[in-house]
Design goal:
- The chain is 83% helix and 0% strand.
- The protein is mainly α and 202 residues long.
- It has one domain.
- Helix 2 (24-37) packs across helix 8 (122-131), helix 3 packs antiparallel against helix 4 and helix 5 (82-95) packs across helix 8 (122-131).
């Protein structure tokens, strides 16, 4: 399936002569397809973006495509085709029941964590968010930040394959700094919530 996607995309690029970020006209619809039915891994599009645009611009394009797809799947499954998504993913939701409970409890932070650590499909994360008590605005921010984290990590892992010998120290160190900021924000938020809970029960 990955080879098929790469061949079709390569053919479209050759026929349309699309260059630069105009590639998103092709890859965003593919990201939506991936987000709805999951017929190929999103990593295929990330590799394609990096190959065509270079590491920095390729990761930026992947972030845009992933964020758009994640938002679209959330809105579609929440407001338009909830019953269809529910039937399609019900068995998998049972498998990830404990993560659904974490999503209900931690909301934004659970989405960011699940996007960062590839333990379940991206489309399933979007659907789980749609059926949770997470509201649209918080999901939007968690989707943007979570996709940034996920694609940044994959960029580190794939850049050495696409561009052998590339110095990845800046990319790695900046990502570590990004994770430390997220971790700090999470603990501050948790302490504030715990303090609020104590004041309410006092």
């Amino acid at each position: 399936m990955n080879d098929w996607i790469e061949q079709i995309t390569g053919w479209l690029l050759e026929v349309t002569q699309i260059k630069g970020f105009w590639i998103l006209l092709i890859t965003i619809p593919l990201a939506l397809l991936q987000g709805i039915v999951g017929v190929f891994p999103f990593a295929t599009l990330v590799m394609l973006h990096i190959s065509v645009l270079g590491v920095a611009n390729g990761l930026l394009a992947s972030w845009i495509a992933g964020s758009v797809a994640g938002m679209a799947v959330y809105l579609i499954s929440k407001f338009m085709f909830f019953d269809w998504f529910n039937r399609k993913w019900l068995s998998k939701l049972e498998k990830y029941e404990r993560w659904q409970k974490s999503l209900d409890r931690y909301g934004v932070w659970a989405v960011i964590f699940l996007r960062t650590i590839p333990i379940m499909p991206n489309n399933l994360i979007s659907f789980m968010s749609a059926v949770s008590n997470l509201r649209t605005v918080p999901y939007t921010w968690s989707n943007i930040i979570g996709n940034l984290s996920s694609i940044w990590l994959f960029g580190i892992l794939s850049a050495s394959i696409v561009f052998p010998g590339m110095d990845l120290r800046l990319l790695i160190l900046s990502y570590v700094g990004f994770l430390l900021v997220l971790l700090g924000a999470f603990f501050i938020r948790q302490r504030m919530m715990a303090k609020k809970d104590r004041s309410m029960t006092a």
